[in-house]
Model the fold of this input.
Amino acid sequence: MEYLPLETLQHIFRFACLDDGHTGCSLSRVSSRIRSAARTTRFQSISFRADYERVTAFAALYKAQCAASPEHHPHMWHLAITLPPRLVDELCEVPQWHEGLRDLFRDVAKDLRSLLISVDSERAHALQPSWSIFDCPFPVLQDATAVALSDIAVLIDKSTADPIFPAATHIHLVATARMSFSLNLSPWLAHAPRSTHLRISHINYWDRGIPKDFEHALGFSLPPRPDPAMQSVRRTHTKLSKPPRPITHPHLRYIALQPMAAPAPGGWCGTGLSAYRAFMTWLDRLATYKGLVDLEVVSVRPFAHQVSHAQWRNLATQKWLDRMNGGLGCWDADSAVVDERLRVVHTAI
Done:
């Protein structure tokens, strides 16, 4: 390897450094020549937990590598970052962390193609509007996944008027068990004006206002369910039947919705099961509605068992890795997968 041409080594490393960053880190420790050859690709895909020490150290390292060789500038294509709960609570007391993370995103924004950002806490409401770690667009980013982040607006600087993800086509949002469905979809769609695929996982169906909130955010609504008495009249007098009102969206073409696992039988007056059935009835009506125009709505089968917040973070990371290596990731809505570590059967996580 020490005698291979630099171009050959860089080509090899480009395919090798498609993991969570361990390969690039290992290459940098082989020798000074290999470290220099891997400079452009060692940061190609990175996954890390953004506590204070790591953020400041990594931001400094990345800046140093960028300045070391302008001809062989490092590029970061894929990033998975987890915001720890301590910083969710104490962010205002750690301004250096805030600035370090903002500087890091400024440096990588121009090259980033996929982003997974998750909050290591189910208390997503603790996010403060003062975070503002995004103050520039990600011009080539195509895939964005968020776990326990209800509103992308809390991460965006208020002075930023242009869309943050102007080229993004795939958006995946994961709620949590303790977080209500109130995912603020409008900012996501506004900051990803070219998105064609939207997936929302682990939807909390306990809030019976979910269907209306969802329809309002997407700018359409299902017509009211027909009166059973009138259905018999329409069958007798076919001339009374009207074609379904068309439903479409300016840029979305595929929407996948997955609720939380069904509750166990029983409970307080059967409230949980009643809410679950009501949501699934609405979802089935939406997915089978005949008036959808250039829009497909898919009902993704829920887990057989409840999945914890930590398990969702792990699943999102697995799908992020699969996606960057040419797989379908969370967009494989047809295949059933068994994850032995989680011991649950799931579909298209």
Summary: Confidence is low (pLDDT under 50) at residues 334-349. DSSP finds eleven helices and ten strands in the chain. The CA atoms of residues 215 and 221 lie 5 Å apart.
